[in-house]
Hints:
Helix content is 67%, strand content 3%. It is mainly alpha-helical.
Amino acid sequence: MADSSWPGDQLIVDAQRGNVDSITALVSGSHPNVQRFARSLCATPEDAEDAAQEALIILYRKIGTLRASGALASWMFRIVRNECLRRARTMRAHAPLPDAAERSAEDVVLQRIEAGTVAAAIAALPAEQRRVLIMRDIQGYSGRMAAEALGLSTAAMKSRLHRARTTVQQSLRATPEPTTGDTHEDDHHGHQTRRP
C-alpha cells in the first residue's frame, strides 16, 4: 500500500505530461511533507520555510525529470536537504568567526560531508527499508500510522525499521575519515610528530 499522504501516482504521471491542474495539485499535495522535511533538516524556521518554498518551485518546474513516480518522496528529500545545506553554508560564510584559527580544515570538511553522507546512506537502502525509515525518522509518523500506510503489521514495520537503521549506522561507521592532507599526527602528549 502506498503512502497516502503523498499525491498519487496518476496525479504525478499527469503532472509529468504537463497538465497544469495536475501540477498545481501535486505541488499543493506535496507541501505538508516538504515542510516537514525542511523543519527537520534546516537550522532555523525561516530557513525551513524558504527551503520548502524553493523545493516546491523546483518540483513545479522540473517534475518532468522525475524518473519514477514512486520516487517523489526521496527526490523531494534530496532537494530540501540540498537547499538547507546551501543556506547553512551561506549563513556560515556571512557569520563573523570569533577566531578564524579555531575552525580547522578538518572541521570544515566534516561539516560539508556529514549531511550528504547520511542522505547517501539512506538513499542506498532497499526501497522498502528507505520508505519506513523516512516515514518514521524524517516525516515523524507514529509506528502504527507508518505500518498502516505501508500495509504492514506493526511487528514487520519495526523489524524493517530496525534493519534500515542498522544498515545506515553500519554505512556511516564504514565511511572513511576525511583527510586534510596533513602528514602529522598527535602523540599522546598533544604534540605533533612526523610519521617516519
